[in-house]
Design goal:
The complex is a heterodimer of chains A (234) and B (264). With 234 residues, chain A is mainly alpha-helical. Chain A is built from 6 helices and no strands. Chain A has one domain: Phosphate transport system protein phou homolog 2, domain 2 (Methane Monooxygenase Hydroxylase, Chain G, domain 1), CATH 1.20.58.220. Helices cover 80% and strands 0% of the residues of chain A. In chain A, helix 1 packs antiparallel against helix 2, helix 2 packs antiparallel against helix 3 and helix 5 runs antiparallel to helix 6. The longest helix of chain A is centred in the first third of the chain and has 34 residues. The relative contact order of chain A is 0.14. Helix content of chain B is 34%, strand content 25%. Chain B is globular, with a radius of gyration of 19 Å. Chain B has one domain: P-loop containing nucleotide triphosphate hydrolases (Rossmann fold, 3-Layer(aba) Sandwich). The longest helix of chain B has 14 residues. Chain B starts with 14 loop residues before the first strand and ends in a 5-residue tail after the last helix. In chain B, helix 7 links the parallel strand 7 and strand 8. In chain B, helix 3 packs across helix 4 and helix 4 crosses helix 6. Classes of the chains: A mainly alpha (234), B alpha/beta (264). Chains A and B meet through helix 3 of A and helix 8 and helix 10 of B.
């Protein structure tokens, strides 16, 4: 994970420990997102409840990462790549914590949607989108572990596919709502879910940008291509 | 957004000292190789690098302290405001009044506190009477943050002060001749954290008047006090740049390895 070892081996152990926490967080978030989407698709209440409970572990890991990073800064005064590693780790932890919240929210809405008439095809589309975004998240974290700026740059570009999926879902839900006003409540929930998954994609992009900062020392300056959003926001 | 960054400001773009292809030999040992460096006026420049990398040797070239070492030979050009300091017409004693120096270990003269500071102005004839000399002694001791501690015992020997006080006395002595450049060779290595903080604060104040070049083994000290940092390795100047950049994003892997405490 690291290049040359430090003369102080305890410093290496500290840095490796916080990065291991990030990978653990990442694993939990990927699982939460995929489980929540599966719970929605298969109407699995128990699984949805389990996702809601698992968010606590993600929040606790974020606090641990922050506490450890504060300790490393205070005791080791990291500089250069070490400093960028600590800064990056803190930002990634905060992104992953947000993603965990989105997964938890998805699980909550899955429970509510279970009580309503299903919108045909919606849960399947949401699940596909969640799978796509889960892959983005995984690749951004892989790029972090292997310090792979090339993979990170690719993740940045791939986020627009997620934006396009969100746009398609937005139009689909709008159509359902216009066709039958009794669909509005369910479609509003589904739309929030799609929007939140799209936000997870943005966090994956943010993590990829942090990896580029970590490896090159500068944030990427060129604007990444964005699909025009049908909802008109951003 | 660039103008909102917290970069420590370098106040002038005036070049005070410029070294061009500087070489130093101790006998057959080539200690400094092809060093090109520009020391800005009113700026603190830190020299860092592992022991034996040549940073102290190079610092000592800047006021010809190496003249006293018979086997030492300096080649290339070192210019103070465009004039070659190794020119035969330059008097090293006059040069050292313009480029003062503070050493690693405090080395006050075995004289009174007052005379330690007054010595330079006296031999260079910088004052016309006792009142002027008193004024210089007081203002230098004040600048060195020592006045309040010693004002009631100026006649006491300088060697009777504590280590930190002695080092500040040496700084007061070094600035008494109103130098244009102050060279400091690990000035805080024998000091406790409080005295170190006082000296660092002093360095920051001094840079409003002249340029300071400091050799330090403490990365954190270089980061705290300097605006520009030069990294030396095996007699080469590896990297020279804005201190914030050197410590967040060094361009040379050797700089990175050294400052982050890795085996290079």
């Amino acid at each position: 994970m690291l290049k040359d070892p430090h003369i102080s081996r305890a410093f290496d152990r500290d840095l490796e420990a916080v990065q291991a926490m990030i990978m653990k967080m990442g694993g939990l978030v990927e699982a939460a997102l995929s489980d929540a989407a599966k719970a929605l698709d298969t109407q699995d209440e128990a699984l949805a409840e389990q996702v809601r409970q698992s968010d606590k572990a993600i929040d606790e890991l974020e606090e641990q990462v922050n506490a450890e990073c504060a300790r490393v800064i205070a005791l080791r005064a990291p500089i250069a790549t070490d400093l960028r590693t600590v800064l990056t780790v803190m930002k990634i932890a905060s992104s992953l914590e947000r993603c965990g919240d989105y997964a938890k929210n998805l699980a909550k809405r899955a429970l509510v949607l279970g009580t309503m008439a299903p919108i045909p095809g919606a849960a399947g589309s949401i699940r596909r989108m969640a799978r796509q975004v889960g892959l983005l998240l995984k690749d951004s974290l892989d790029a972090f572990v292997s310090r792979d700026a090339g993979l990170a740059a690719e993740v940045r570009l791939r986020d627009q596919e997620v934006d396009q999926m969100y746009n398609a879902l937005f139009r689909e839900f709008l159509t359902h709502m216009m066709e039958d006003t009794r669909n509005i409540t369910a479609c509003m929930h589904l739309h929030f879910i799609a929007k939140n998954i799209e936000r997870v994609g943005d966090h994956a992009t943010g993590i990829a940008e942090q990896v580029i900062y970590l490896t090159t020392g500068a944030m990427p300056d060129t604007d990444r291509p964005k699909a025009a959003l049908a909802s008109g926001d951003e | 957004m660039k103008d909102q960054r917290l970069e420590t400001r370098v106040d002038t773009q005036t070049i005070k000292i410029s070294a061009q292809k500087a070489q130093v030999y101790y006998g057959t040992n080539h200690a400094i190789k092809d060093v090109d460096v520009e020391i800005m006026d009113k700026t603190v420049t830190a020299f860092i690098g592992p022991s034996g990398c040549g940073k102290s040797t190079f610092l000592r070239c800047l006021n010809r302290m190496n003249d006293t070492i018979p086997s030492c030979r300096v080649e290339g050009k070192i210019l103070l405001e465009g004039e070659d300091i190794y020119d035969a017409r330059v008097d090293p004693v006059q040069l050292r009044a313009r480029i003062g120096m503070v050493f690693q270990k405090p080395n006050p003269f075995p004289k009174s506190i007052y005379d330690n500071v007054a010595y330079g102005p006296k031999i260079h004839g910088l004052t016309r009477n006792k009142a002027e000399l008193d004024e210089i002694v007081e203002s230098c001791l004040r600048k060195a943050a020592l006045w309040n501690e010693v004002k009631d015992r100026l006649a006491a020997p300088g060697t009777g002060l504590s280590g930190g006080q002695q080092q500040r006395l040496c700084i007061a002595r070094a600035i008494a001749t109103s130098p244009e450049v102050l060279l400091m060779d690990e000035p805080c290595s024998a000091l406790d954290p409080i005295a170190t903080a006082q000296v660092e604060e002093l360095i920051d104040e001094l840079r409003s008047q002249f340029s300071v070049v400091i050799v330090t083994h403490s990365m954190q000290q270089a980061a705290r006090v300097s605006q520009r940092t030069a990294f030396f390795h095996l007699g080469h100047l590896v990297e020279f740049g804005e201190t914030g950049q050197i410590f967040t994003n060094p361009q040379d892997p050797r700089t990175e390895s050294y400052i982050s405490g890795r085996i290079g």
